[in-house]
Specification:
Length: about 260
């Protein structure tokens, strides 16, 4: 039996996805500001402080503290609740912010807790708590790619996150280790030990082009990985946007651009 609202869903699209959530009367979904795409008539929108998981149980200071924690993980102070105030089933849809995949977390089946990268959260059933998770190790916080603070999703309902490129789900057995680029870690269950490992060999980190550190994930538990972190995509766009060839405008420059794909 779930204590969070029980919602049904369907994901549409391939590289640019959106999730359609079906709400029974009086059921509610919560979402990040700006994630909304469309909804049926009869659904009411309400702006909430924080995540709405304990709105009836805390005073103003408690709500403000809950909402303020979310600023630390790159989310806004406010969330939007979408409630079916009509008769029969109603649908509301939320869109991914950039190319990639939407991940569904059934928190009831995942131990009640998921730790995710900042800005990963998209929407969830009402009752799911969106908080902060501090990295326990100094090195992980400094070199782990996400800083000291990550996002924490808790409850027993459905939560939806978004990641870049293609998403891979891996289940690690007890003691099994997976080494990953630090930017490719999207989320993991509470039993995963997340650490960083220095890349050995001066030639590897000077000329390998992969940074100085791996993310080291050790089971037991599940991990979700993305093939295209948004930071990597943004960096490549910036690189090409500010790229100027010395010979630009000459015949030689035009030929060079054609050969290396710049034209």
């Amino acid at each position: 039996m779930r204590s969070n609202h029980e919602i049904d869903y369907r994901i549409y699209g391939e590289e640019l996805q959106f999730v359609e959530i079906e709400l029974d009367p009086n059921e509610t979904a919560i979402a990040e500001s700006g994630a909304f795409m469309m909804m049926d008539n009869g659904i009411e929108m309400n702006t909430l402080f924080g995540d709405g998981s304990q709105q009836q149980d805390t005073g103003f200071l408690g709500k403000l503290f809950s909402a303020g924690k979310r600023l630390l993980v790159g989310e806004s102070l406010f969330m939007t609740a979408f409630t079916n105030a009509g008769q029969g089933k109603k649908r509301v849809s939320f869109a991914a912010p950039y190319t990639g995949k939407i991940i569904v977390f059934d928190l009831q089946q995942l131990g009640g807790k998921i730790i995710a990268q900042k800005d990963a959260f998209l929407c969830a059933a009402k009752g799911v708590s969106i908080g902060i998770e501090f990295q326990k190790r100094l090195g992980t916080g400094i070199f782990g790619g996400e800083g000291f603070i990550m996002e924490k999703l808790e409850g027993d309902g459905l939560a939806f996150a978004h990641a870049g490129g293609y998403v891979v789900e891996r289940e690690l057995q007890a003691g099994e280790v997976l080494k990953v680029d630090t930017g490719c870690v999207v989320a993991y269950t509470a039993g995963i030990d997340f650490d960083i490992e220095f890349i050995r060999g001066i030639k590897n980190w000077m000329f390998g082009g992969e940074g100085l550190f791996f993310a080291k994930l050790q089971g037991p538990g599940k991990v979700w990985l993305q093939s295209l972190p948004i930071s990597r995509l943004a960096g490549r766009i910036m690189q090409y946007g500010t790229y100027n060839r010395k010979e630009e405008g000459s015949i030689l420059g035009g030929l060079g651009n054609l050969l290396d794909g710049k034209e």
